[in-house]
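If you are new to this repository, start here. Below is one unmodified record pulled from the training split, so you can see the exact layout before writing a loader.
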Amino acid sequence: MCEHTGWLLDLYADRKEGGVGLWFLSDQGERLFLRQPFPIIMYAAGESSRLRNLWRYLDNQPIQVSLRRAERKSLFESAPLTVMRIEVAKAFEQPRLFRDIERRFPDLDYYDADIPLFSRYAAQYNVFPLTRCKVLLGANGNIQEITPLESRWELDPSSPPLRILSIEPNTDPAHAQPTKLTLRYERYDAQWELKPERQLLIYLESVLRRYDPDLIVTAWGDTWLMPYLLKFSRRLDIPVSLNRDPDCEVVYKKGRTFHTYGAVVHRDQQVHLFGRWHIDIFNAMVMYKDYGLEGVFELARVSALPVQVVARNSPGAGITSMQIITALQREILVPHHKQQTEGYKTAYDLIGIDKGGLIGQPLIGLFSDVAEIDFVSMYPSVIRRYNISPETVGNQHLDAGFVQELERFVDREQPGLVPETLAPLLDKRIALKQRLLELDSRDCRYKPYKARSAALKWLLVVCFGYTGYKNARFGKIEAHEAITAYAREALLRAKEAAEALGFTVLHMYVDGLWIQKPGACSVADFQPLLDEIVERTGLPIALDGIYKWIAFLPSRQDARTPVPNRYFGVFKNGEVKVRGIEARRGDTPQFVAQAQMEMLQHLAKAPTADSLPPLLLEVINLLQKYIANLQSGRIGVQQFLVRQKLSHALDEYRVPSSAARAAKQLEKEGKRVHVGQHVRLLYVRGKERVIAWDLPQSIDPKTLDISRYKRMLLRAASTLLQPLGVDENALQDWLFGYNRQDLIIFDANVHHALSREGSAKDRPHIE
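And here is the target side for that same chain:
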């Protein structure tokens, strides 16, 4: 017998002995490869005759299986379901066997059949990636027992001393062929030429063997670097130990294009390693930039998905894994395909039921001393409080709640699978947010806490969406409708509470309200309202912050029409918040976004909305500086780049968009752009009007369409100045049609009007 304590790093099917292989980081710093028997169990259900045929087929297979009749609980059935229990001795053989029998017996229902291996293991032993645990080895060196030493819900989990190697080429391979690689680890930082490849491979192999990293972080590693290294490794017959496990081959996962939330998304191919992890920062999830490695590690801990998987997959995969673990631990069958369909509804029913979140129309204009209050993780809190789950909605019991708007019952007697999965996750995020409130932002713990809280937020957000997702195993649209119905009612109750206490509700959006009251400008002034809302709704709510001033903007097409998610403002602590303006858009050139944010920072110095006009000249001076830089060519070409998504195949466009025209240019050079990918382009003069950034030939800055970029800059500036009465046309006439004296006269008029009335309606406009 031998005992080790440390952290679980990686787990996968062991092809040599048939169980699972685990990589374990011991307290002594050893990276140990351990084996453990781990048979896989799945179930089949259907007509008796078909099950007998399946039994006979499996009995004649060379794969070692154990078969017997069993009864198991189904989430949506009151009585146990009679199933065939199929136990596969060797873990790596189960996926291939399942694909075979599914193809031969498509009329049967399958359960627990395609569950990720780590999720199965976590459900059985309650250990997760990066869990600190203790392993007891038998005489043969295999794991006899594994015991977790901490929970995945720990607020301060122990941190393993990971070795991280970073590899980055000196340029984007999609734009130009790299010539050098930069390698960084610990205090080492070196740059190596790509050619000759033999020298590079020998050097890289020496680093991998000497440093033995647990994680390789790359830039463009999935799409270019790893394939490049492996190609020359085979061609020159020089081994490169990208895998820590020498018995495994590097795995390629194909790229794919899919639709989600009304948008088309493309995922590039992935390169996965065994024994160590690989993360490509440019092929990770979009949210990676919000939470980084700390957030990835947190998601791996709570979801039981491998680190390199959770970095690339959507939060939906994580929440699905968590629900599967809950089901397995409750001995509930996990269906291979979603089995619940939407109940019959008339068009009239849909109009009354399928409403989504409640969104108000903001009052257009500038406002001072505005508080933003938000329900804490509103939808997850609703799910938990009202026990909303696919199997609880529509079940009428003595303790069932009734959703008046939907005329539907929700069972509160039996805990639902979704609320049970969410409860500890929600508690952990609330606790992390509380820690953040107590810490100074300069505290070394602040940044990791914030990253982990952000990662958990995405799991909670997606959990609500997955109740209505068409392919979710435990999804049901009626549960989704019940959640939004309760949430709408809670927001209306919050609005009523605010108005009852004398507040003006300027805006409300799904889970938050913007409120104002004369004399209310401190946290204490809003606390009675928060207490009243909690009393009326039973849901936690928090003060997100108090704005010095905030501007709610109208539509560009009609200045009388408000836009719910288009505003900017400055909190009392100086933090700026923007939504829906140019700086937040992905298709805005870098210098335009930078100019808008710099102008906003100047406006942020105003303590109230009425203090903004004196800063007008300062903002105009800054705008003129950017225009001068634009016209004189002092802005680098790369800052003019625009990113647009290719939303259709090139042959589907009747009138090609800018992205489509740029993609056609790339296609002629042999560079394929997939639907859902972003195309980088520049606006130029001439027939094409755009030029793709990633073309092999260099781009002449003199061909840039400066007038178009100038219009984009003016539009961004007018967004900020519109609440002061300066629209885009007026701004253009002001800058290019009048002299400097007119600006000073206008500024004086603004001061005069504000001193006379101080209200938005009296602020003069440029004609």
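Two things worth knowing about this chain: The CA atoms of residues 374 and 607 lie 24 Å apart. The longest helix spans residues 477-500.
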